Amino acid sequence: xxxxxxxxxxxxxxxxxxxxxxxxxxxxxxxxxxxxxxxxxxxxxxxxxxxxxxxxxxxxxxxxxxxxxxxxxxxxxxxxxxxxxxxxxxxxxxxxxxxxxxxxxxxxxxxxxxxxxxxxxxxxxxxxxxxxxxxxxxxxxxxxxxxxxxxxxxxxxxxxxxxxxxxxxxxxxxxxxxxxxxxxxxxxxxxxxxxxxxxxxxxxxxxxxxxxxxxxxxxxxxxxxxxxxxxxxxxxxxxxxxxxxxxxxxxxxxxxxxxxxxxxxxxxxxxxxxxxxxxxxxxxxxxxxxxxxxxxxxxxxxxxxxxxxxxxxxxxxxxxxxxxxxxxxxxxxxxxxxxxxxxxxxxxxxxxxxxxxxxxxxxxxxxxxxxxxxxxxxxxxxxxxxxxxxxxxxxxxxxxxxxxxxxxxxxxxxxxxxxxxxxxxxxxxxxxxxxxxxxxxxxxxxxxxxxxxxxxxxxxxx
Length: 462
What we know:
This protein is α/β, with parallel strands linked by helices.
């Protein structure tokens, strides 16, 4: 399997090089040159597998340059740290299926990908005798998951930018209380979009990227998306066994388009997904795109679901590549125009194709609170605010003719204030959060300025 850039300047590179490159050298995002397709018989064979073996069967189709025995060990090691034997279990509550993605070290769906990516990096660096300086931006969960994925690992330093004062207290503590020598937390005086812009600009400086051996953990890294594809197959298999249904809806709370894009890839591979339901909070550039063809940047609005407080969705370019019939010149021109104008137009034919892939809903703060409250009252099950956005969208948009799976992207204890406000009760804390407020912290507040961040990286890079 070879990889190409959405903008056409990189072609024919193997999976290992795609992982190490992160952002494509031409500024685009990497995608496989072809997507493997599975028959109904293939799907039925996958449905009986435990999660690590299922992950191997999916990922190995895209990572053909890693020996099978090595890949199996990397996958098994990555998911051994999860606290549930099924890794991402499915539970049935109040008419919807909840895919719990929060049983990893930092209690968020990002662990599913970043535990694997950290191990992939360590494996590839050892194989090549190289080192890496990881730079990433986070709106909350990616940062801690990336840090836990590489903390203490050989030949890796990690620099994570988060928006100062704009992540939940637990999210901040999960990052800043990791004091391993190879971990650097930077609180930028700006928004997540500022952090994402700074990271893209740094990676766009190819001389700097090469000199400091920069690596990416944001979902611009294809391996992140690939690892997330697996749990769509897992959820389908679980519900197929329990209900006999072959077709599903998936409802995905999203801000950066990475998690839902993994579902889109699963659908292109042949997973029988009726529609992907795209759920946003008030930062609704993506739901406006699906519903109205309006992909235009607005101002970031702080909400109870801060991991989705995003206006520029970095993974959206990957979907554009397919919407534009895999035409990299058209993608490159569209992204250049978007950089200047902050908006993209879509014609009627393109909008019809989008409508075939997605349904979408904007869920505001009041609706999020009401969903957490009502769901808890009906079931005793506590939703975190991001998951509540997805559940609300599922209940409004899924027609009831086939089951709907809602992706539970974070443990409710990460957003205790929102849960307390909605239900009157604090969510139960898992053991990993016990005493976190008393732990030693390390973090630097820094200007949201590319040159300032580059200077910091220069000073502390391997």
